[in-house]
Amino acid sequence: MADLDNKDQAEIDPADMEDVEDVEEEETGEDENSKARQLTVQMMQNPQILAALQERLDGLNGSPSGYIESLPKVVKRRINALKNLQVKCAHIEAKFYEEVHELERKYAALYQPLFDKRSNIVKAAYEPTDEECEWKENDEEELTDEMKEKAKLEEEKKDEEKEDPKGIPDFWLTVFRNVDLLSDMLQDHDEPILKHLQDIKVKFSDPGQPMSFTLEFLFEANDFFTNTVLTKTYKMRSEPDESDPFSFDGPEIMSCAGCTIDWTKGKNVTLKTIKKKQKHKGRGTVRTVTKTVPNDSFFNFFTPPEVPESGELDEDSEAVLAADFEIGHFIRERIVPRAVLYFTGEAIEDDDDDYDEEGEEADDEEGEEEADEENDPDYDPKKDAAPPAECKQQ
């Protein structure tokens, strides 16, 4: 039977089907069962059959089994009561998130003095003391006093050779470069502008006002625009939708609004000028037409698509807004609170650690098994030799 099992697992070329079936008949005598198994193997190797099967399975995914419909009316009535309880739970959950928002506002006021000091250090408005700059790296524990002194002298020598930079140059630009979600938006012509970005702040809506938050991008004086602050406001909703209360899963961003950027003449990186040649149909003369068209830029972030009162958007606008909401939420939740760690790259490593790649663990286990086999005095490599020729996968 072991040979039969191996044959069942093998991949069989349809052209060899008859030969294989003959072998099965001679060896087992179970003609019908063998043919059925071989036919199943061949069918499962057919891409078209597999695709049709997968499509059928996808259609069944999430579909009711028919059990609920088969229940007596009195039981269905009780299920409706449970659903009404679930709706009440959703409304309580909405209140919970409203209180969470109030807590966020409260603690934002506690964080802000620290963020302001961070900003002052970055833009060279404040020079931190020696005590504030003291930081013990994990690997310093193993360094001897002599090695530490040598490293210190080398650092001082490097500092003497360089100009004394002000603050932390390109702090926010480096943060943007290090985060894939933001770097994908950056264009080469955006970077000279973002060198002037001095801080990003999060402002929450006032108590009693509809739930929202505003991102403030603070710029020093520059040659590109006259604004000192660019803003992006996100309006949120934290209440179940009456038409679909069970879909409620916490606050969701409903719309966003940017601001007008007062560009210096000729410096607007969100637009570009192109020249097109047009040929007159009758006379055949050619003229050159200059047109201004939209240009890819991070600063398009401040002019998102407007959501109509009906709430209906085309697919492109929906995709843009979905990405916009994700970026706004990420800046609020991760970038602003942990900016220095995204600047150094440490937060990026932490983010990567949150996602275990499938296969890594399996590969490690396989490697451990191989090592164990090699170290096992009773291990016989002949037992793990390739299967007989008729069982090899084609």
Automatic annotation (TrEMBL):
<feature type="region of interest" description="Disordered">
    <location>
        <begin position="347"/>
        <end position="394"/>
    </location>
</feature>
<feature type="region of interest" description="Disordered">
    <location>
        <begin position="1"/>
        <end position="40"/>
    </location>
</feature>
<feature type="coiled-coil region">
    <location>
        <begin position="136"/>
        <end position="164"/>
    </location>
</feature>
<dbReference type="GO" id="GO:0005634">
    <property type="term" value="C:nucleus"/>
</dbReference>
<dbReference type="InterPro" id="IPR002164">
    <property type="entry name" value="NAP_family"/>
</dbReference>
<keyword id="KW-0539">Nucleus</keyword>
<protein>
    <submittedName>
        <fullName>Nucleosome assembly protein 1-like 1 isoform X2</fullName>
    </submittedName>
</protein>
<feature type="compositionally biased region" description="Acidic residues">
    <location>
        <begin position="347"/>
        <end position="378"/>
    </location>
</feature>
<dbReference type="Pfam" id="PF00956">
    <property type="entry name" value="NAP"/>
</dbReference>
<comment type="similarity">
    <text>Belongs to the nucleosome assembly protein (NAP) family.</text>
</comment>
<keyword id="KW-0175">Coiled coil</keyword>
<dbReference type="GO" id="GO:0006334">
    <property type="term" value="P:nucleosome assembly"/>
</dbReference>
<feature type="compositionally biased region" description="Basic and acidic residues">
    <location>
        <begin position="1"/>
        <end position="10"/>
    </location>
</feature>
<feature type="compositionally biased region" description="Acidic residues">
    <location>
        <begin position="11"/>
        <end position="31"/>
    </location>
</feature>
